[in-house]
UniProtKB/TrEMBL annotation, chains A, B:
GO molecular function, one term: DNA-binding transcription factor activity
Native source organism of the sequence: Brachybacterium phenoliresistens
Entry-linked NCBIfam families: HTH_metalloreg
Lineage per the UniProt record: Bacteria, Bacillati, Actinomycetota, Actinomycetes, Micrococcales
UniProt protein name: ArsR family transcriptional regulator
Gene3D superfamilies linked to this entry: Winged helix-like DNA-binding domain superfamily/Winged helix DNA-binding domain
Annotated InterPro entries: ArsR-like_HTH (IPR011991), HTH_ArsR_DNA-bd_dom (IPR001845), WH-like_DNA-bd_sf (IPR036388), WH_DNA-bd_sf (IPR036390)
Pfam families, per the entry: HTH_20
SUPFAM superfamilies per UniProt: Winged helix' DNA-binding domain
Domain annotation HTH arsR-type: ranges: 2-109
Length: 109, 109
DNA sequence: CTCTTCTGCAACCACACAGTTGCATCGTCG
DNA sequence: CGACGATGCAACTGTGTGGTTGCAGAAGAG
């Protein structure tokens, strides 16, 4: 259930999260919605660089945009993270369970 | 407790997981431990490329090595994934909770 | 002992991408 | 209206890195 409108692959999501600057942006957004220009004032990178990162984050559904007058505010979407987290955990658990069963088989030889 | 010998940062972990080939390797390893050469026979990439990927995965603790005679078998460590998953989920939940509280404040104006 | 095969190291190529500068546009405030 | 600040698009640079080939050393298999 909950068909997950857009369902970016786990690797796309991880790829998006595999960048230091992107985390800085997410952290900054965590303290309140902000526009690309506003973020550029707080972070040591250009507005255009931030815009690109925001595009990436938006593509995988980690942020959403809110039009406020002439500026475009960005808001972090935590549920995107949680969804990926659940998927990762499921995979990890499955692997470990498999490993455990193999170990048991080996012990039962 | 369980001091987590190496504690790769979330971004390092995500960076390691942000690669298609690496997931192929993990998937292949999921069906049983294997050496770099063995993996190279199953995947459409060179042994050296696989070796590099395995090094990355090993650095973040997603795989562990097992010496078997002269060859080096690799085994996937699911708990590494689960740990990162928990961290991601915690962050996501915190962000969403913050967002919810802000929304509530706005409604109470 | 010899041949095979598994490993490791190093150099090299090529593409992806983070980051920059520059320009053009458009809304908004004075 | 004019100026400032926000956005968007495009081109360029440079570094990181996924991938390759090549070679040399060790350890089993025959």
């Amino acid at each position: 259930m909950s068909p997950d409108l857009v369902d970016p692959s786990v690797v796309e999501m991880c790829s998006a999260l595999g960048d230091e600057t992107r985390w800085s942006i997410l952290a900054a957004l965590g303290e309140g919605d902000a526009s690309a220009s506003a973020l550029a004032r707080r972070l040591p990178v250009t507005r255009q660089a931030i815009a690109k990162h925001l595009a990436v984050l938006h593509d995988v559904g980690l942020v959403e945009t809110v039009q406020v007058g002439r500026e475009v505010r960005y808001r972090v979407v935590g549920s995107g993270l949680s969804a990926t987290a659940r998927r990762l955990d499921a995979i990890g658990v499955a692997w470990d369970r498999r490993l455990a069963s193999i170990k048991q088989i080996a012990e039962n030889l």
